[in-house]
Amino acid sequence: MRRYINSSRPTRRQALIGLSGAALVLGAPSILRAQESTLVVVSGGGSYEEAFRKAVVDPFQSETGIKVTYVSPADAAKLKAQVDSSNVQWDVVEISGPAFRSDADKYVEEIDYGAFDKETLDNLVPEAKTKYAVGSYVFSTVMAFSTADYPADKPRPRSWTEFWDVSAFPGPRSLRERTVEFALLAAGVPKDKLYPIDFDQAFASLDRIKPHITKFWSVGAEPGQLLSDRQVAMSSAWNGRMQILKEQGAGVDYLWNEGMLSPLHWVVPKGTKNRAAAMRFVAYQASAQAQARLNNLIFYGPLNRAAFNYIEPSVAAKLPTAPENIDKQFFYDPAYWEAQSSSGKTNTEVLVERWTQWVAS
To answer: Full-prediction pTM beyond 0.85?
Structure first.
């Protein structure tokens, strides 16, 4: 998924980027400033790399003396190959999947939360503190509308049950392919009871909406195009994409209610030669100040609740984890999707097989 730089350029951003290391008590003071090797950090490129370098990498290097080499993109297969060949070249990788698989202990290090200060640990949401990964940021899949079809003064669906109600809210729709959580919400399952997924119930719900779906999208840019071109009246979509389009004057809008929060995580490959520095880096990026600097630049949300003490209020309202937004939504569960089902396949593999058969029927 691509990320976008916040074009609103909040006035406090420059000051936040310049916060000194004295504000961050990260890890034991006995950790020495690294000089003999660089820390290889792997994540996305493009506008996200620009924001992440400015908000996290550059201050981290300045405050710790640890030199960072930034590599893109992150790739689970390459991480696995490096570990399997005992030739680990990456030290920290922004990727979630490997941390939630049954063989996680073979490929990623257990996170050393002793490297984190108490304030960070107290303010990270539970979904950000896992055994083999620590949260980076979160994006939300939200319900979006064409304002030509559903202007602000016209009633709009406020839930996925209403999104499914084509009589009360007519118009063609779009959903991301392999959507099952929203299908269950539409069937009346509470958002805190979605997992484990009842596939039979989910696909029965999808049967009801399928005739009204113009396209099941797979690329993040598609919903915005479909809505802007009025090919659909409403769609699931990534919040950052919708906010950028709104600020560009496109005829789209969205709501947070029953959005699906999808966290991204940092992992440390098993066998890294720079384990201590890697743990220091993941602790640093999880701090309130670092997450604030990053999320003042992009329209995704921090996983450290205290970050909102440093984020411009006008920006915070547009982020999925803002206090007024987060409780309206639910967290996607990566551990469930990476877990093995009774068939021996992962739940993701079960979903892909069933979806492929269903969409072709």
So the answer is: yes
